[in-house]
């Protein structure tokens, strides 16, 4: 058999192939030759064949039949064979297949080889693709090499150890002794890899972290030497001495300094030094600065240093290099919550980044801009953001529109501004707004009573221009149906009233019904709007005609509506006015949970509108947050208490604004004109709820909590109309001789539930069972899951505050099934 | 670092180094997708992008794209320097490296990479040191080969 062709020759040949088919043919031919060569157990050319196989593998062809050959190469004595063998192993072998374990013995032998380059090959392979089993078997050898004085091997062993620890974390301990004097090495390779190893250990184990904290002074010294030392050709990159090592040390310092005051203080000086002395003309200097900023922001640094860090980021934003701008925006996004004021100073630069060409930069700038919007800058910011909405790519429009709505809701300086802003979004990005924005907007419009005429007029004008954007059309038709009378009477105060006749309005609405651009949902809105106008307009006959036509529409939804409206005209005409009268102001329902960005925009102190009136309300908001933290944040929904009984009912709206950041669960905020219906305050421990029909006889009460003299009993009711709602009343009693004052009961339930806490009867649980505090909880359980609840109790007893958490699990099945 | 890829403007893979255990099928899919994403980028865009849940750092040198996937906590700017260092090493070794060098000597490119990084982390920050080690290993390889094939190699037998 002739000698197999050389690697380079094969590559050359394959590259001459003009088509994929030709290439495939060549490859298949060569593979066949290689296969038979393997079968002949030819030692001389095995290496060459495997190398060729690796090339073909890179082109995408299967090469698994070479796996065992790699193992044979590794076992060979020739260095060339080992080199290719190990490369083949790293490329072809998969830890999922048992075949890889055959390597273990070879690697073990090679780790103890007399030639350091062979040892190096073994360490590299193990460190790149060693499976957990291999790592377990060979960790001892690696640990030995970690202690060698040969720096070539020591640096590789360190990185190999990192891999071992990643694969088998329990083995971390065994490397601890070897780390003793890793940092006293002069060799930069060993230093660098040692820092990586230490970082890995500290990240994985709090004990290791504590143990290695004492290294901070040494690390600081090494870093200082790097900065202060003169030019070192071996490690110099654009005038900076070993930037890679500097960055790794900074990262390790970050981990060591995090949440530790002493360590953080020990590194303050060096961080300031690096931050101010590093040359920023090239990427390499900026890379170090970036790492420094990340470290400053993460440890317990003093405020001056933090401001320095944010200013560095601000300077980054002005850098020509888009990569630098990108990392600056990313970092600012992370720090905007904690260092809000400092970031605000760079607001205009951030807003400029909205015009950047790079998509990722634009996105970050947008997110950051929304995070920076507050009551003071809302007008200016909104102008920029609306301009951005106009011109941005479609992928941004939905998020931007949502963000604008959210910001407008929170910080609108006036109702008119709010409506104008919404109009602007609907007309420019109308097809990208989320579906739920339509009902939200309608609700907002109904609430702005004095703006009805203005709103309907503007919406009508918008419809005249463009009927293609469905959310806009839907909101407009709804409004015209609702406020059409205001439209034709020309009552608008805010702007010049337009002259429009009833027929013109009906023309527009009928136009929507027939237009190809209208979605079925839109047609439904339009038909209903036309119907509503029958009580507001005088041209009833025309409306009757339209409605009767659609009684035979192919669209079932439209047909049903039309038929019902027809019936309304014919048989129930006396009910028509009542049915179609003006809608009452809608209650605000829960805001969109998961998509909502929880933002405080640095105003947690300033945004309390009336702190004098609501001293107790600030507490529940924070406590609810704490409850959420305690419960791990993600799997329960916090419940915000409604106002305590002493608060005036009209403050309900403000309460909602305050807590608008947190996701409310079905807590209705009454508008000033609508009275809140509360259950009567029951101070005598009786459990019946006059609101509901069902008696509580069926479900047994239970004791949820009994500790330190405080006992909480629960009684249950199931409402008739909605089988998914359970009503629970808590009765808190106190057997001690002192009253429990400032008693606050909070509860949280799993995500599939919704909870509503009504006002408690009082916040004093009288001593010696002289009375009780009752509070009603309504639980919505649409998925009929088992009810679980975590409760937090706070009260003052004999002068000292008491706080307790409890989990309530043993709810009777009838309460949630 | 999770992995590093080198590929040409035409979407031909020239080198792939994976530092995490991934199934062959998944590797192929990821490479295909990522190449598409990176090749679609315009010159004015930044070198960083998010793809799936990874941070991607890429840089183009002549006709080759060097593309790394790094972890959330990794410093993107220094990753650019890592890529640059690797290119410098290749350049020193091959003498003004071009794509053809990497095509015809892909195994050497791997050897250099493996002397520079292990498990995605830098072994030695000194260019000189890395190049010296490769040189020595190459010598070892030459000593291995029997004199006969060395002469053949030189076309003298």
From TrEMBL, chain A:
| Primary location | membrane
Q: Which controlled-vocabulary keywords does the entry list?
A: Cytoplasmic vesicle, Golgi apparatus, Membrane, Protein transport, Transport
Per UniProt, subcellular location reads as: Cytoplasmic vesicle membrane; Endomembrane system; Golgi apparatus
Lineage top rank: taxon: Eukaryota
UniProt-listed InterPro entries: Adaptor_Complx_Large_Subunit, AP1_complex_gsu, ARM-like, ARM-type_fold, Clathrin/coatomer_adapt-like_N, Clathrin_a/b/g-adaptin_app_Ig, Clathrin_app_Ig-like_sf, GAE_dom
Bilayer topology: Peripheral membrane protein
Domain GAE: residue ranges: 697-812
**PROSITE patterns on file:** GAE (PS50180)
An example GO biological process term is:
vesicle-mediated transport
Pfam families under this entry?
A: Adaptin_N, Alpha_adaptinC2
Cellular component aspect of the GO annotation: AP-1 adaptor complex
Write out the similarity annotation: Belongs to the adaptor complexes large subunit family.
Q: Report the protein name in the record.
A: AP-1 complex subunit gamma
Q: What is the lineage of its organism?
A: Eukaryota, Metazoa, Chordata, Craniata, Vertebrata
From TrEMBL, chain B:
Q: Would you say which domain of life the source belongs to?
A: Eukaryota
Domain (AP complex mu/sigma subunit): residue spans on this chain: 1-140
Cellular localization per UniProt: Cytoplasmic vesicle membrane; Golgi apparatus; Membrane, Clathrin-coated pit
Q: Does the keyword Membrane apply?
A: yes
List UniProt keywords, sorted A-Z.
Coated pit, Cytoplasmic vesicle, Golgi apparatus, Membrane, Protein transport, Transport
Database matches in Pfam families: Clat_adaptor_s
Which Gene Ontology cellular component terms are annotated?
AP-1 adaptor complex; clathrin-coated pit
GO annotation (BP), single: intracellular protein transport
InterPro entries named among the record's database cross-references: AP1_sigma, AP_complex_ssu, AP_mu_sigma_su, Clathrin_sm-chain_CS, Longin-like_dom_sf
How is this protein situated with respect to the membrane? Answer: Peripheral membrane protein
List the Gene Ontology MF annotations in alphabetical order. clathrin adaptor activity
Assembly and oligomerization:
Adaptor protein complex 1 (AP-1) is a heterotetramer composed of two large adaptins (gamma-type subunit AP1G1 and beta-type subunit AP1B1), a medium adaptin (mu-type subunit AP1M1 or AP1M2) and a small adaptin (sigma-type subunit AP1S1 or AP1S2 or AP1S3).
Record's family?
Belongs to the adaptor complexes small subunit family.
Q: Output this protein's name.
A: AP complex subunit sigma
Q: Which organism is it from?
A: Salmo salar
Q: Gene symbol? A: LOC106577896
